Amino acid sequence: MAKELWKGNEAIAEAAIKSGCRFFFGYPITPQNEIPEYMSLRMPQEGGCFLQAESEVAAINMVYGAAGSGARVMTSSSSPGISLKQEGISYIAGAELPCVIVNIVRGGPGLGGIQPAQSDYYQACKGGGHGDYRLVVLAPSSVQEAVDLTQEAFDIADQYRMPVMIMGDGMIGQMMEPVEFREVAKRQLPDKEWATTGTKGKRKANVINSLFIDPAECEKHNNKLFAKYDEITKNEMRVEEYKLEGAEIVFVAYGTTARIVKNAINTLEKEGIKAGLIRPITLWPFPYASIEAAAEKANVKAFLTVEMSMGQMVDDVKIAASGKKPVHFYGRTGGMVPTPAAIVEQVKKILGGVK
After folding, report:
1. Is the pLDDT of residue 353 over 60?
2. Which CATH architecture has domain 240-351?
3. Nearest-CA neighbor of 242 among 252, 229, 232?
4. Least CB-packed of 78, 283, 291, 328 within 10 Å?
5. What angle do helix axes 143-160 and 215-236 make, rounded to 10 degrees?
6. Where are the alpha helices (DSSP H) in 193-323?
7. Domain with CATH 3.40.50.970 in the chain
8. Cα(121)–Cα(305) distance, integer angstroms
């Protein structure tokens, strides 16, 4: 199949449609507006439903309803809009409903700006809503990977009955790159016997709920959720390891920031400094084992976490390194993007200059 040039947001939307998504509920906010705009055109063509809700709060509760019927459903937004959806996301996680949520991250806090950022890591990975729950969080670094991960996100959501988030920065949403819409590996997905599809007089009514008045029942439900999360941690963790062999400095970066870091690695290599990269593809489950293994290597002198934030993922890198090697941080925020040259300078400061 020939590759076609697609804008990131529109490619994500088309990938969702090809995955069987037939319901989309959202609300406009930059820099993800092309997703609902594209869905408003394509959903009716596919016999699906596009609805621009009156607010982000309304949109996420519409997702709850559609997911409860067993349909494949998606919503998308950008940072402040995702904040407004957090109560609904917690309800969906508590009710064990599969759906896909796209966050094309912009600078903050507050209304911030419309430029790219990665400052929603805490919100996505540490529970932006209330209670004990997790989302599978997928972080693409290219438009092609955004397409592939979007298609797989629906299968992951259905397999484990939980919300899955695609988290990309504004660059992923707005850039144009060659894309091939290819099928992802088939999974053995369970039947949706829990869905509220109508009994037709043949079974008891299904009840979808996240309310447990009895504290013992609520605890039992939480333990059930976290047993599932343990299974996901074993089966779904993804990471890219790049040029780690012999590396003195190991970068940890995700999304488009990781692509910038790769340019810095090539520059450092020309200057005689060996550097490698650990790129989390799943921000949750986080690839602690890759960082732990790198921290054990004698050639590794330090880690450098690079983010478009004031430093959020760096906490997980420090946990994984367990004090065995120093963990440094370099970040730009508010919509500013790190440059390869600035990253190279940070490495030289850490290692004490070019040898």
Report:
1. no
2. 3-Layer(aba) Sandwich (3.40)
3. 252
4. 328
5. 140
6. 215-236, 255-270, 288-295, 314-321
7. 4-188+206-236
8. 13
Contact 327, 317 (CB under 8 A): yes
CA distance 285 to 230: 9
* CATH 3.40.50.920 placement within the chain: 240-351
- Whether the CB-CB separation of 157 and 134 falls below 8 Å is answered with no
Nearest-5° Cα angle at 58, 52 to 61: 115
Q: What is the pLDDT of residues 113-161, one digit of tens each?
A: 999 999 999 999 998 999 999 999 999 999 999 999 999 999 999 999 9
Token pair of 198, please? Answer: 């109508």
Give the containing element (helix H, strand E) for 15.
helix 8-18
Alpha-carbon distances, residue 346 vs 240, 252, 258, 259, 328 (angstroms): 22, 14, 15, 17, 9
Which single residue is written with the structure tokens 């343990």? 230
CB 106 within 8 A of CB 30: yes
Strands 275-280 and 249-252: parallel
Kindly report, residue by residue over 251-275, the tens digit of the pLDDT.
999 999 999 999 999 999 999 999 9
Residue with tokens 């144009």: 176
Q: Would you say residue 320 has pLDDT above 70? A: yes
Contact partners, residue 243, CB within 8 Å, separation at least 6: 265, 269, 274, 275, 276, 277
DSSP secondary structure code for residue 91 in this structure? H
Architecture of domain 4-188+206-236 in this structure: 3-Layer(aba) Sandwich (3.40)
Quick one: pLDDT at residue 355? 45
Q: What are phi and psi of 74, to 5 degrees?
A: -140, 150
Going from the C-alpha of 263 to that of each of 1, 241, 267, the distances in angstroms are 29, 15, 6
Tell me, what's the pLDDT at 184?
86
DSSP conformation class of 272:
T
Query: Distance (Å, rounded) from C-alpha 6 to C-alpha 8?
Result: 6
Q: How far apart are CA 242 and CA 277, in angstroms?
A: 5
CA angle 4, 336, 288 (to 5 degrees): 80
